[in-house]
Design a protein that fits this description.
The structure holds two protein chains of two kinds.
Chain A: H1 4-13, H2 18-36, H3 41-56, E1 70-71, E2 76-77, H4 80-102, H5 108-130, H6 134-152, H7 159-190, H8 195-205, H9 209-229, H10 238-245, H11 248-274, H12 291-310, H13 316-336, H14 340-369, H15 382-385, H16 387-401, H17 407-421, H18 425-451, H19 464-482, H20 485-494
Antiparallel strand pairs in A: 1-2
Helix pairs in contact in A: 2-3, 2-5, 3-4, 3-5, 4-5, 4-11, 4-14, 5-6, 5-11, 6-7, 6-11, 7-8, 7-9, 7-10, 8-11, 10-11, 10-13, 11-13, 11-14, 12-13, 12-18, 13-14, 13-17, 13-18, 14-16, 14-17, 14-19, 14-20, 16-18, 16-19, 17-19
Chain B: H1 6-23, H2 29-53, E1 62-70, E2 75-81, H3 85-102, H4 110-129, H5 133-142, H6 144-154, H7 159-186, H8 200-203, H9 216-233, H10 242-249, H11 252-277, H12 279-305, H13 310-329, H14 336-366, H15 377-380, H16 382-395, H17 402-415, H18 419-444, H19 460-478, H20 481-499
Antiparallel strand pairs in B: 1-2
The chains are: A mainly alpha, B mainly alpha.
């Protein structure tokens, strides 16, 4: 017999999961439409977008986020992190669906499944960011993970796509398993799967030398899963192959969606569990457990490795894959800063990164579609054949380098500020020098587009919709670089 | 007519021009050029009115504008000029106007060229008038983008290499500056509001520096970071290798801007940021900087002597001349040297601009710049030879022409503090005279190279670009007070502040 109070409390929690419910309904609808009206791309796109927008509407009706507002038996929490990242993932999903619509990478047969999977991954990410229970975290993590493996292997018959999916699955399975083992250790220590309960027990456990060893092992195992999702050293090996093999819009999705989810999870797990609370905007890692130093090292290695390896890439998707590894390294700077400023930096940078990275991948997809390829050589002289697209690409790349007046610069300022505030000067200098290294390979693309002679003269055909999509990504990339006070206010309100 | 926010107008007026150029259809290239020219005329007029209206005896900043920009970081859009910035702003307005005329023969991707050029203009005036460290940094970096494309698209045969080398070198300096900028931001607390600050006038107040920013190691490292950043730009030996490449490949007008204005940003940055923020370190680094200046003087001159390419020769001569600026700026025992240094910044701007324009003239006709490939040109191009003679004599420091006074002031001033360095630096002048005269001899004198017997003399447009500069060079050679009056008061306070 289920107690009435339990049912009631769960009913009250339903509005909080309404975004996920709406997305699920959309998915079911699309499954039906897929049987009735296959091969009508526009129908799927419109329905999926309506579903995504619809899933956001309930957010404004809900009470303002509070750190202790839990729902559905305490599995989820309605705090600023949840409130911020749900729309974030919706925007990412929406842009990816538009990009898929515009791109020829996915043919009509697979289009319906692709749309549905993107929606489902989006839902998984939304659940993940709201979870405050180890079990729920793992479930959502795997929902996101397994469905993205499918997305990578979307192109039936394409060997590279299949190889990429297999690599992703093998790495993913291994690291998820490791992370789950970490969870079980933590459960063993705390006797609960609830993050708040665990965080209370962890402080006690850190006093006891035997428990402390377990704790350290648990942290390391956690790290495996998170570093895998964010494509950080030493779990980055899958990234270039998967990014190259996957259809370009999906690559774009992986580089912003699950990566951002990984960082949201970093904040969700590491800050309540392994720090002793905020004082004046600063956190302390719990005694004897120096994970920030480990992460600082990981951060430096990740960005250096990503940038150095990117120099020699001739395939633009691989180049952007290594660049996304490097960006994971930059983002980790915000995590190791152990301050509210650091957390703001991470969220701010993720927003900026969303637009500029989607933009860069969007251009890759459009150029490949318009008769070019993903090799840098095919970008030679493209500036005169497709001027608008190339100027957009140059802006996205300059933003990725972190040059003013583009949004990437402000994001970098935030991250640099965070580590300098924490007085980790060496990391700031490493990141600064990495910026210079990254300039070289991003400029290889710019150079090919504008400084070299075209391989052919004909204008490249790019659809009007693609241009509009690029414009929608350009506006925030430029706008947030010139005036970012509104977003600065949002992220300051969060932490 | 002087508008209210004159500095903002000067910064953003060219940008409006750039926007208009983008709207012009492709088939009207001349219209684009006219718009570009019109976009540089009002700033020139406003610069003249600044010159007239500038209070020569007032200490502190004038024509200030301050609006909050990003409250979350306490960043302000804050502008103002003092005696250090006003000669640079005058120079920028003048050279921008001249360079648009000098670029009239650009016929490839006209729209892109002039739009980027005007963006460059905006960023340059911005650098020289920003009083907020963050704003300064934004303009400083903004300058890189148009410069990269201007060298990379319209440049010579090795343009790609030169463009990326320029970009990489400068960015190394910028990112170091960025780190230092943030250290200062967190190391300072504005007394009125209790917030961190990017405001250069507040950061210059040593009492706002918090404990960790008072530690000697941090200050030393900060100064070093800034110094490397600015030294790359000046460029001081050993950070100079990007300059000859960039100059050789850049189109004429861009070489003019590069040598005339961009190099000054390095020394300007030291005066505007390093000295006020870290006066104690400025004293500590003075000898080191003076020695680097000396090395630049001698090494630049020696390298210039070995060059076959005229542009490379002038590039190395720039390194040598900027060495004098650095030497003069490192003297704090008197104000003579630093006055000479800032005057030299201005004079070098006009003289090198002339030199590069002159090389551009001959390159347009002969399509090469090989010094030994000419001979006897004075016969076919007498007017050209006259202008070149004037520019060369000005560059080598002939009395009666502008550079003589500035170099003499630097040497007179620095002799009081660094005797051996100054004596050695003087040999740089002899070397300079050597390579300029030798070049003169090989290009203009001797038997006429028949290949170039038919070269037309200088055109009206070219004469129009050269004449204003030539007049300034002669005028300041006889009577430097128009500039010295502008800079004197501010520099007196700068030296007093550094000495403490």
């Amino acid at each position: 017999m289920i107690p009435k109070a339990f049912i009631l409390s769960n009913l009250q929690g339903l509005p909080f999961v309404s975004p996920e419910i709406i997305l699920t309904a959309t998915i079911i609808l699309l499954l039906v439409v897929g049987v009735v009206l296959p091969r009508y791309r526009l129908v799927f796109t419109v329905l999926a977008l309506l579903g995504l927008i619809g899933s956001l509407l309930p957010l404004w009706k809900l009470p303002p986020p509070q750190p202790n507002l839990t729902y559905l038996s305490g599995l989820f929490v309605w705090d600023w992190l949840t409130f911020f990242f749900k729309p974030f993932f919706v925007v990412a999903g929406g842009f990816v669906i538009l990009m898929t619509q515009a791109s020829g990478d996915i043919d009509n047969v697979e289009y319906s499944e692709c749309t549905i999977l993107v929606l489902a991954v989006t839902m998984g990410m939304m659940l993940l960011v709201a979870s405050k229970d180890l079990l729920m975290i793992f479930l959502a993590f795997e929902t996101m993970g397994i469905l993205s493996y499918l997305l990578v292997g979307m192109r039936a018959g394409d060997v590279r796509s299949g190889e990429a999916a297999l690599k992703y699955v093998l790495y993913g399975a291994f690291t998820s398993g490791t992370m789950l083992f970490g969870f079980s250790l933590l459960f063993g220590l705390a006797g609960s799967t609830d993050l708040m309960e665990i965080s209370r027990q962890v402080v006690a456990a850190s006093q006891n030398s035997q428990d402390k060893i377990l704790l350290i092992v648990a942290v390391l195992f956690f790290l495996a899963g998170l570093l895998f999702k964010t494509a950080s050293f030493p779990f980055h090996f899958w990234c270039p192959d998967v990014y190259e093999g996957a259809p370009t819009p999906i690559t774009a999705f992986l580089s912003v969606g699950p990566k951002a989810a990984g960082f949201a999870l970093f904040i969700r797990l590491f800050y309540p569990l392994f720090t002793t609370g905020a004082q004046g905007g600063m956190y302390e890692s719990i005694s004897g457990l120096d994970w920030p130093s480990i992460l600082a090292l990981v951060s430096a290695l990740t960005m250096t490795l990503g940038n150095v390896a990117a120099i020699h890439q001739n395939n633009l998707k691989r180049l952007l894959a290594y660049s996304s590894i490097a960006h994971a390294g930059y983002l980790l700077m915000g995590i190791v800063a152990l301050s509210d400023l650091g957390l703001r930096a991470v969220t701010f940078y993720l927003v900026v990164y969303l637009f500029m990275n989607l933009g860069a991948f969007g251009v890759v997809a459009m150029v490949a579609n318009g008769g070019g390829s993903e090799e840098i050589d095919s970008y030679r002289g493209l500036g005169s054949r497709a001027p608008y697209v190339c100027v957009a690409m140059a802006i996205f790349l300059f933003s990725l380098i972190g040059l003013p007046p583009f949004a990437g610069f402000v994001g970098k300022i935030y991250l640099f500020a965070a580590v300098i505030y924490k007085k980790i000067y060496w990391l700031a200098v490493v990141a600064a020098l990495n910026t210079v290294v990254s300039l070289y390979y991003y400029l290889r693309v710019v150079k090919a587009m504008f400084l070299e002679k075209p391989i052919e003269e004909s204008q490249m055909q790019i659809s009007l919709g693609s241009h509009a999509l690029l414009l929608a990504l350009l506006i925030p990339t430029l706008g947030l670089g010139i005036y970012w006070q509104p977003l600065a206010k949002v992220v300051s309100g969060m932490f | 007519m002087v508008p209210e926010h004159i500095l903002s107008w000067m910064i953003f007026f060219p940008l409006i021009g750039a926007g208009l150029i983008l709207l012009v259809p492709k088939r009207y290239p001349t219209l684009m050029k006219v718009i570009a020219l019109l976009a540089t005329v009002p700033p020139l007029w406003w610069a003249a009115s600044l010159y007239v209206g500038f209070d020569r005896w007032g200490n502190g900043f004038q024509y200030m504008e301050k609006v909050p920009w990003i409250e979350a970081f306490n960043i302000h859009y804050s502008l103002g000029i003092d005696g250090i910035s006003i000669p640079m702003i005058l120079l920028t307005a003048l050279l921008a106007f001249i360079c648009v005329i000098a670029s009239w023969n650009i016929n490839e991707h006209v729209r892109g060229y002039f739009a980027l050029f005007l963006l460059l203009d905006t960023s340059m005036v911005g650098v020289f008038s920003a009083l907020d460290f963050f704003l300064f940094y934004v303009f400083w970096e903004l300058m890189l983008l148009p410069m990269y494309f201007l060298i990379g698209i319209w440049g010579g045969p090795r343009k790609e290499y030169a463009a990326i080398k320029f970009f990489l070198f400068t960015l190394v300096g910028s990112v170091l500056m960025l780190v230092v900028m943030l250290v200062f931001y967190f190391g300072s607390v504005e007394p009125a509001t209790g917030l961190h600050s990017f405001d250069l006038t507040i950061l210059a107040d040593q009492s706002v520096h918090q404990a960790f920013l008072q530690s000697h190691t941090i200050r030393w490292l900060c100064y070093l970071g800034l110094f490397i950043g600015f030294a790359i730009k000046i460029p001081l030996v050993p950070f100079h290798t990007w300059l000859p490449d960039a100059h050789v490949e850049a189109p004429t007008a861009i070489s003019v801007i590069l040598a005339g204005i961009l190099l000054k940003m390095g020394t300007y940055g030291i005066l505007r940021i390093s000295y006020p923020l870290l006066p104690d370190m400025a004293r500590e680094f003075a000898l080191f900087a003076a020695i680097l200046g000396l090395i630049s003087i001698i090494y630049g001159a020696l390298c210039a002597m070995a060059q076959q390419d005229m542009k490379k020769l002038i590039a190395y001569s720039s390194i040598s001349h900027m060495g004098f600026v650095m030497l003069g700026m490192s003297v704090f025992s008197n104000t003579t040297a630093i006055n000479g240094a800032v005057l030299q910044m201005f004079n070098h701007g006009t003289v090198t601009a002339m030199l590069f324009l002159l090389v551009g003239v001959i390159y347009d006709r002969a399509h090469h710049r090989d010094i030994d490939g000419f001979g006897g040109l004075a016969k076919t191009m007498p007017v050209y030879a006259g202008y070149t003679g004037l520019a060369f004599f000005a560059a080598l420091g002939l009395p009666g022409l502008s550079s003589f006074i500035s170099e003499a002031l630097v040497l007179v001033g620095s002799f009081q503090q660094y005797k051996i360095i100054t004596i050695t630096a003087t040999t740089g002048i002899i070397l300079t005279a050597g390579y300029f005269l030798w070049t003169m001899q090989r290009v203009f004198l001797g038997p006429l190279n028949q290949k170039y017997a038919e070269l037309p003399d200088i055109s009206l447009r070219e004469a129009f670009t050269l004449t204003p500069l030539a007049l300034i060079v002669i005028l300041l050679g006889f009577y430097p007070m128009p500039v010295l009056n502008l800079i004197g008061t501010t520099l007196k306070h700068t030296v007093a502040m550094v000495v403490g």
